[in-house]
Design goal:
The complex is a heterodimer. Helix content of chain A is 32%, strand content 31%. Chain A contains seven helices and 14 strands. In chain A, the strands form two sheets. In chain A, strands 3, 4, 5, 7, 8, 9, 10, 11, 12, 13 and 14 form an eleven-stranded antiparallel sheet that branches. A three-stranded antiparallel sheet of chain A has the order 2-1-6, with no helix packed on it. In chain A, strand 12 (260-267) and strand 13 form a beta hairpin. Chain A is globular. Chain A starts with a helix and ends with a strand. Chain B has two domains: 1-78, Orthogonal Bundle (Rna Polymerase Sigma Factor, Chain: A), CATH 1.10.1740.10; 91-160, Winged helix-like DNA-binding domain superfamily/Winged helix DNA-binding domain (Arc Repressor Mutant, subunit A). Helix content of chain B is 71%, strand content 0%. Chain B contains seven helices and no strands. Classes of the chains: A alpha+beta, B mainly alpha. Chains A and B meet through helix 1, helix 2, strand 4, strand 5 and strand 11 of A and helix 1, helix 2, helix 4, helix 5 and helix 6 of B.
């Protein structure tokens, strides 16, 4: 079994004695050093505190005089504003953002972390809705950020690999066929599916919560489902050869077919503004698709990072 | 109030293997992993939330180690190449080849697989450790398990 092969190999990795001894020496010698560091910090902290006080005082005056509540909003991705010229790009084999998996009934499910966050002034609530899939909201205990939501029952058959519903109080490891209970009741996480949600602007994503767009291939027509079944192995292929990337793109295109994120902002004066975000895919090199991110990488590491992949593009419709 | 020497020594003895394993998983280089151990040691001595219980401290140490590895990879002056050549201290040669296969997985997949299979953390706990969404972790885990299985089968390890 893969798990046993893996754990046996990891078991054999032991920290070298010299490294452990070095850590222990550092711990023993730490008390003496700390006294010297504390004196330096004390003087330094005084300078920083004085500078900050001055900056805050100046900033407060400027802010008071020039900023007044005015209806405005922008959609952001990682603090960068999305515009017609600046879309969000998410690597499908990267570490975050988009993922897909095979369900128990041969369907393919996907999960796209809601890539946008709304920022602006005088905003009361932010609403999201999606056309095809569902908005999956995970939250800790009773801390559901959704103040109003329309439940979605269509995507209930999303496999547990995508829709981790902690309220089931178990996570069954199907691969091991041991019905191993992995859920820790003390975690107390919940997950609900909605067609549309409304969030308080000041509490869009409280700690421990997450919002994703989930869906699966069951909504596709027979021909499209057949295509996905035939090509699903290519979805999980590790080597990004051109023919596999093309097949992957086609599969992801089908999964995200007609998906649009609708965002509606309600301001405190009762007025509303809307913005739609469409999802596309493209194949390209990281250096071409995410040019500014790529350029921020030190030059010597760029070659390793310049992989070819399928990217999901979220752009203003 | 900083952690005492005695407590620090106890934690180092208890978790040094874990810190090293995570660092090796992330950096694929034993020399770099030893450097990370030192950096984590400094964090432990200066910032450890020692008033918390031992499970929280373990959780905290994992996070610090992964963060240190991420920072290390970004360092401009980090000039060592990722290499498995010095990975000679594994007890059996087959373990070394298994790890070479494991390293074909993306970094996050390796971390999730390690935390799930080896440390037996739940998906919700892994999400908290890696500061990711539970949905992302569960789907990444699912994919990583398929990839791991494929890699091991392709590498000639029987799926008993």
């Amino acid at each position: 079994m893969s798990k046993n092969i893996y754990t046996d190999a990891v078991d054999s990795i032991k920290a070298p004695d010299r490294a452990v001894n070095k850590m222990l020496d550092t711990a023993r010698r730490f008390d003496k050093k700390e006294k010297i560091i504390n004196m330096k910090k004390f003087k330094f902290k005084g300078v920083i505190a004085a500078s900050l006080t001055a900056v805050l005082a100046i900033g407060g005056v400027i802010g008071y005089n020039t900023l007044s509540p005015k209806n405005s909003f922008v959609m952001t991705v990682n603090a960068a504003e999305i515009t017609k010229d600046n879309s969000a790009k998410i690597s499908t084999s990267g570490e975050n953002g988009f993922s897909y998996g095979e369900g128990d009934n041969d369907e393919i499910s996907y999960c796209l972390d809601l890539p946008v966050l709304c920022k602006g002034q005088n905003i009361d609530t932010v609403s999201y809705s999606v056309d095809s899939g569902a908005l999956s909201v995970s939250y800790y205990k009773n801390n559901n950020p959704v103040i109003y939501g329309k439940k979605n029952n269509k995507v209930n058959n999303t496999p547990e690999s995508i829709s981790y519903t902690a309220k089931d109080k178990k996570y069954i490891d199907n691969e091991n066929k041991k019905a191993e209970i992995k859920y820790d009741p003390s975690q107390n996480y919940n997950c609900k599916h909605y067609s549309s949600i409304t969030l308080d602007y000041d509490n869009q994503l409280p700690e421990g919560s997450s919002i994703s767009i989930v869906g699966n291939s069951t909504r596709l027509n027979e021909a499209e489902q057949k295509y996905l079944k035939e090509h699903k192995n290519q979805l999980f292929n590790l080597n990004g050869k051109d023919e596999f990337l093309k097949a992957q793109k086609l599969c992801i295109d089908k999964l995200l077919k007609n998906e649009v994120i609708h965002c509606t902002i309600k301001f405190k004066d009762g007025t509303k503004q809307s913005q739609d975000i469409k999802l596309d895919t493209t194949i390209g090199k990281f250096s071409e698709i995410c040019k500014s991110d790529f350029e921020s990488i030190p030059e010597k590491y760029r070659n390793a990072k310049d992989y070819k992949d399928v990217f999901v593009i979220c752009s203003i419709a | 109030m900083k952690i005492g020497t005695e407590k620090a020594e106890q934690l180092i003895r208890e978790y040094s293997d874990m810190i090293y394993r995570i660092a090796v998983h992330n950096l694929k280089n034993t020399a770099d992993a030893e450097d990370i151990m030192q950096e984590v040691c400094i964090e432990l001595l200066t910032k450890c939330p020692h008033e918390k219980d031992s499970s929280y401290i373990k959780f905290w140490l994992i996070r610090v180690t992964i963060n240190k590895c991420n920072s290390f990879r970004r360092l401009v002056w980090q000039s060592r190449r990722e290499s498995l050549d010095d990975y000679l201290h594994l007890e059996a040669p087959q373990h070394r080849s298994v790890m070479e296969e494991i390293w074909q997985l993306p970094k996050t997949d390796r971390n999730i697989i390690y935390l799930y299979y080896y440390e037996s953390y739940t998906i919700a706990e892994i999400a908290r450790i890696l500061n990711k969404k539970t949905n992302t972790v569960s789907s990444t885990l699912r994919r990583a398990r398929i990839k791991l299985k494929n890699i091991l089968v392709e590498g000639g390890y029987n799926n008993e």
